[in-house]
Amino acid sequence: MNSQDAQTIIALAALAANADGNQGEPERASIAAAASRLGLPAEDGRLQQALQGTGDVAMLAHALSSDEARVAAYDVAAAVCHADGALNARESAFLAALSRELGALPGLSESAETLGAAAQAVSTPPDVAGQPTTATDAYILDQAMLAGAAELLPHRLAGMAILPLQLRMVYTIGQRQGQQFDMSQAKDLAAVLGIGAAGHMMEGIVRGVLGSVGRGVLGGLLGGATGAAAGVAVTFATTYALGHAAEQYYAQGRKLSTADLKALFTRFQGEAATIFPKVEARIRNLSTGTNLGSILGGFAR
Question: What mean pLDDT is predicted for residues 5-14?
């Protein structure tokens, strides 16, 4: 794999992020910003076509130079499409076209199985009936450490477990506070805080997959944060802050304003930064006894 492959994969990721047809201008701007941070200039024609929904899947797929790059391209595109739940018809058509153009490749069936489990985890609320309401702080810390541990797993799609875990945590907290709602409302709350936006998801997935398959070539292109270890503290803080902001939001009957929610989120991120050094060793130990399947299968703990 070379740097040209990496840029092509980033363009495919942008095309995947725009594939569902539901992106407004703010979402497209977030995709463009993420692509730029990853190393694909905003003026690049492939990115502009992706944002307009006119990208040529066949041209991009055929530009890849190796099977390694082709597998990475499929992993990235499919992960972006699956990240917020089950595929819609446009996303399914996009992935089918990409798969045809890439040809038969080892590892794609494994990717499809893993991504299907992640989508199911996002789409299916956990059963929290009878769970205590008095241990929410411990539950949030537990989930934040588990999300951090996912960053350290060797599986190339391990980052796919993080958003489902965060969304199911929000849902569980709401249910424990007596709120009756569905998983889409948990997604909405996370989105208010910038979690789950297309650009945010795309960037995390690209860094995770490309950072694991080509550190030598891709390190310079993607910057210094390609390694999983670099994201552990951020993922821990984001999950911790999301959980505590959700706890206060639901405890107050979902009456907090967007500004108040964002202020809470920022405050709890700062609190998480002071906690992380105290739990980092526990997170690393947790990652050694955990695998992607167990995370995808066991969110409601």
Answer: 90
